[in-house]
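We modelled the chain as a single entity of 135 amino acids. Its sequence is:
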Amino acid sequence: MKFFVKAAFWIALILFLLPSNGQERYELYATAQRTISDIGGFCTRNPDICEKASSAFQGILQKLKAATHSVEDVLYESGIGAKRSPAHDEVSVRDDDPPYHRAALHPATTSSVGVGADTLTAEDKRPTWRGPNRI
């Protein structure tokens, strides 16, 4: 019963805020358009604030990446998780890095494989799946 009362309240609130005639609808759209254009021009009026916010968000993203990498490493070392793709690692080589980090940062060159050597496996040479044949 409590759920229905809450749902009725929110539906009534939404219906109350929706425009009921053409004039109200026009005013709502015009106000929304002015608000969006004002928000769009915020960075041109306040470039220093936008620059600081951008650098702060970059710092937060870097911290989140580092935290997820740490969690992935702990899960991998405990045997719970799978090793992450080395192509997505953006870490520097340190002495305490796990070996799969160092290997990812030093890819094999053609001179170590040999010129003209066929490095494809039988699995690599199989054609890709294309779906069932249609009659």
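As a brief sanity check on the tokenised model: The CA atoms of residues 86 and 99 lie 11 Å apart. Confidence is low (pLDDT under 50) at residues 91-97, 99-111.
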